[in-house]
Amino acid sequence: MNQTLELMLSHRSIRKFTDQLVDAHHLDSIIRAAQAASTSSFLQAYSIIDVKDQVVRTQLKKLCGDQEYVEKAPVFLVFCGDMHRIKTVCDATYESGWTEAFIIATVDAALAGQNAMLAAESLGLGGVYIGGIRNHPQEVSQRLKLPEEVYPLFGMCLGYPDQEPEIKQRLPKPIVYHVDYYSEMDEATLEAYDTKISDYYAKRTKGKIRDTWSESVNKKFSQEKREHMLKFLQDRGFIKK
Amino acid sequence: MNQTLELMLSHRSIRKFTDQLVDAHHLDSIIRAAQAASTSSFLQAYSIIDVKDQVVRTQLKKLCGDQEYVEKAPVFLVFCGDMHRIKTVCDATYESGWTEAFIIATVDAALAGQNAMLAAESLGLGGVYIGGIRNHPQEVSQRLKLPEEVYPLFGMCLGYPDQEPEIKQRLPKPIVYHVDYYSEMDEATLEAYDTKISDYYAKRTKGKIRDTWSESVNKKFSQEKREHMLKFLQDRGFIKK
Fold it and tell me: From the CA of B20, how many Å to the nearest CA of chain A?
């Protein structure tokens, strides 16, 4: 197995970091790697905001569900879908609001994000995606001075790991991977996986949490629907048609 | 520089492949790498369809804008946003149609996709994303028997490269990367980049195409708005609120 595969297969989110700062040339490599990702029709429809200002960090921490690593991680990047740049370049011909443009911007930002995460990991750093940036996207957009047609998709904390969490086992391959056409998942396979994840949580929390995967999914969906997203995105100029 | 960074920085899309088949254990590594990517709240809200059936491949080629590599690439994967599995697991409590769920599924599929692409490249393969899968998403969904709340986000052709395209230079870092808050791009920086890209196209097409980046972006947006996307996604159970 090569280094890249090993890196990917050993991925786990890091939420606790040492005080060691991230060198500027390492951060530069991470951004260059992000930019090297594939991009739909070469549009490069995303922007990355590197939030260094500690006052803004503290505000963002509160807006992102009080996750203290948003404030304390050595690096905090916000990946944004960005059609504003395209619109500027296209001058009068650009038509705002197509859902396809939203998909392009979202995918471009996500591909860049995943390259950034792997680049960081290849340099000995660790990190975690912060979906909580969408808890209060309007306020986040104001703090980061995002123009219309730019929206915060996820944050990313990066730094040197100060924890060694276990790798979280993914769904069995046959549930995610289908040959030729979509097939419904096998119940016994799901049950076995549910048990595995329950054991994982029990071990990690010393018995306090014993959720199966199915239970954890249920909890997530009762808590975090972010019901404001459609209106927020439409106000920003996305998904209007 | 490490192997992973080198790999990312040398990425270019491959659209021409040798006849060499992709070994099953390599494909397995690619899928495992895809699954190892980060996933929002551990939802794993995506599915991968590996289209081997040559009849379906030929149909998909036509539906994806007649790109012959869709038919001929040794491997063709379709990455789908998948809330159907979550809905099944959540039983009666799941509420369909939240835009946030669409974002989660789209990002999860994209992160998995980028890991798959890098895993493939680390094994000596090359590939290209196929956004054209969204040209006729309803017909594609029928061919792949996708249930409601599953939608095709992009395809991916993989195989051993039979071409050696030049790396396409990305936007200058200051245009994409912002410190603390969003800043408008500098016109002179954009102009210099436009010239660079025009030279790149001229070289690649032996003078036939000389588009600047700004011109190529303009062309893309007059051609491919995929105006059907919102209705299609709503029919599938997404972005209804």
Answer: 20
